[in-house]
């Protein structure tokens, strides 16, 4: 019996200071473990309790970190577990096996994108030329697979987002707004495709998943059971699906509860 647990990281298991959503009085706040430092400053946290649950989960299941982060961004994160046998980066574009990128997987993903979608250069050029410096803060290409903009969300016109999404859709790309980032991702570049590949290789019979954002929807749908927190883009849309449990918790407390539920389900306990 192998249970695969594919979980998103940012705002699902780990949280920046701004995303912690602490509500208890300061003297009762949970102790936090910093798991990511960026430019010499602490960036991402989980609760000490969540860290303990995650360590148990990684011992008892095939825990697969599943993120849209690039490999470089992923490798900054130091989860309190041994190097996972598999990790999914770049929204499914890279599969790390014992921490090393599987080039064959990347090649197969790229050949599919080449045949099914408009090229990245065309999409990133469109973003660059239509974005307004009034709200555009940064413009990035990730792993030569997809593009994202960091924006001033308050100034971003909904009309730009809508017309850009329609333009991209005709070219086989999806545009979505997540926090301060506008992502343009080729439609076949998914976390779920990579998760299915891991399940096949590992001979997993059950897949559990967790995630908070629009780029996690396919992952949650592909799992036997899935959980999402009470915050995030999926929560804002009231998104739900068969086999999905919506948790009321928000912020870093949701991360802890997700781990509790995953562990309980993996142990064959209550799965909701
Ligand atoms: Mg997330």
Short description:
It comes from Streptomyces gougerotii. InterPro entries: HAD-like_sf, HAD_sf, TPP-like. 34% of the residues lie in helices and 26% in strands.
Q: Describe it for me?
A:
This is HAD family hydrolase. It comes from Streptomyces gougerotii. InterPro entries: HAD-like_sf (IPR036412), HAD_sf (IPR023214), TPP-like (IPR024197). It is a single chain. The radius of gyration is 18 Å and the shape is globular. It has a five-stranded parallel β-sheet with strand order 5-1-13-14-15, with helices on both faces. It has helices at residues 48-60, 71-75, 103-116, 120-130, 158-169, 191-202, 217-222, 233-236, 252-266, and strands at residues 3-7, 15-16, 32-38, 41-47, 62-65, 86-89, 94-97, 100-101, 136-142, 146-151, 173-178, 181-186, 206-210, 225-228, 244-246. It is of the alpha/beta class and 272 residues long. The protein has two domains: 3-110 and 189-266, HAD superfamily/HAD-like (Rossmann fold); 118-186, Hypothetical Protein Ta0175, Chain: A, domain 2 (Alpha-Beta Complex), CATH 3.90.1070. The longest helix is centred in the C-terminal third of the chain and has 15 residues, at 252-266. The site of magnesium ion has 7 residues, from loops. Magnesium ion (MG) is lined by residues 8, 10-12, 211-213.
């Amino acid at each position: 019996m192998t249970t695969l647990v594919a979980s998103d990281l940012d705002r699902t298991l780990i949280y920046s200071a701004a995303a912690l959503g602490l509500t208890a009085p300061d003297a009762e706040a949970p102790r936090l473990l910093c798991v990511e430092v960026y430019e010499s400053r602490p960036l991402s946290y989980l609760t000490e309790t969540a860290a303990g649950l995650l360590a148990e989960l990684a011992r008892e299941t095939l825990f697969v970190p599943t993120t849209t982060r690039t490999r470089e961004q992923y490798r900054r994160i130091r989860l309190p577990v041994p190097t996972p046998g598999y990790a999914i980066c770049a929204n499914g574009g890279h599969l790390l096996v014992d921490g090393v990128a599987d080039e064959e997987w990347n090649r197969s993903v790229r050949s599919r994108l080449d045949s099914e979608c408009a090229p990245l250069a065309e999409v990133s050029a469109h973003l660059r030329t239509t974005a307004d410096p009034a709200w555009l803060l940064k413009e990035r290409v990730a792993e030569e697979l997809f593009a994202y903009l960091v924006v001033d969300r308050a100034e971003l016109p909904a009309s730009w987002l809508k017309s850009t999404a329609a333009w991209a859709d005709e070219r086989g790309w999806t545009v979505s707004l997540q926090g301060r980032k506008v992502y343009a991702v080729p439609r076949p570049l998914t976390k779920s495709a990579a998760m299915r590949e891991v399940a096949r290789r590992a001979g997993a019979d059950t897949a559990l998943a967790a995630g908070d954002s629009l780029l996690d929807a396919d992952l949650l749908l592909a799992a036997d059971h899935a959980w999402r927190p009470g915050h995030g883009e999926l929560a804002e849309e009231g998104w739900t699906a068969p086999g999905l449990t919506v948790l009321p918790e928000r912020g870093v407390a949701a991360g802890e509860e997700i781990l509790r539920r995953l562990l309980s389900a993996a142990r064959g306990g209550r799965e909701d």
